[in-house]
Predict the 3D structure of the following.
Amino acid sequence: MSMISAVILLGVLIFVHELGHFIFAKLMNVKVLKFSLGFGPKLLGRKIGETEYLISSIPLGGYVKMLGEEPGENLTEREKKRAFQFQPLFRRALIVFAGPVFNVLLTYMIYTILLSVQIPINIPVIDALMPVVDEVVQGGPAAKAGLKDGDRIVKIDGKNIDTWFDIVKNVREKPGEAINVSVKRGDKIYEYRVVTEAVTEKGGKGDITVGRIGVMKQNANFFTSIESKSIPDAFYKGAVATGRMGFFIFDSMRVLIKGDISLKNIGGPLTIVQESGRAASAGLLPYLMFMAIISVNLGILNLLPIPVLDGGHLMLFMFEGIKGGPLNEKTVQIAQRVGLALLIALMVVAFYNDIMRIFISK
C-alpha cells in the first residue's frame, strides 16, 4: 500500500511539475521532443505530433526534453527559431519557472477545494514548535534541577530534541525516572539531571502514568487554522493557506541552516513512501493534505539557486542577463557539476536518515 500510494503521489507531483514546463514551452513555440514521467529505460511511449510521450522505468523524477536544450547541438537556422537555447532570456526563464509554479498551484487547488467544503487547513508555526522553554514552573523538577526561562532543550538522554513535541514525548515515557537534559543558554551548553514527576492521566483505556518536569509554553498555538465560510472565500483563503505553508518551509530552511534543528530531520524517498502510506491508510483527506505539503515543498525547493535545479537555471539566466550575453560553456558545466555534487550530498544525507529511521523503529 505504501509503495503504491507513494508512486501515485510522486507521479502526480512530477506530472504537474513537468506539465508546467511543457505548457509554457508550447506557449513559447519551443519544440518539445519528449515528455517523460520517470527516468531510465522507456516502458511505454507514443509519439503524438512532434512530441514523444513516455512512461519510464524509474518513477522518482521526470523530464521535458526540448530542442536545443543540450549545449553543442548542431541545428539549422530554421531549427534555431524553435530551439530552447536560442530563445530570448525571459522566455527561457518563464519555461523553467513554470514547473515550480505549477507545484505551488496544485497545493493551492487542493487547499481551495478542501476549504470550499468547510475543511480547515492547519499550518504549523515554526517558532511555537521550537523546543524553547517559555516558563519553568516554580518548585517543579526542572526548576529544582536548575533550568531557566528561555532555555532551549537540545538533548534528552542523548537524543536530539528538535521540536517541543520531542520534549513531551521523551519526558512522558519516563515517569519518576532521572533523565539527562542538555540545554542551550546563550552560547553555552549546560547539562542537568532531572527527576521526572509521575502524574496520572485519564487515557482511552483507563488511567496512565506519565512523566512531567514542569516546563511550559506560554503560547501553545502550534498551528494556525485557516477556515472558509463560503466557496468564493475559499479561493482567497486557499491562497492565504498556500502562502503561509510556503513561509513555513522557508522558516524551516532558516532554522536548519542556523543549526537550530538537526540535519537528521531531512527525509528522502523512503520517508515519503512511509508517510504517504500512512496518510493513504488514514483516508483520502490526510492523503490530499500530505500531497499538498509535498507539492509546495517540491516547488519551493526546486527554486533554490543550485545548478541542475530550476532555481539554478534561473540563477545562471540572471548572470547571463547581467553579462549581456551567453555564459562561457565551461563555466556552466563547472557550475552544473558543483550543483550535482551538492544535490548528491543532500540525497546521501536524506537516504542515510531514512535508513536510520527504519533501523531505529525496528
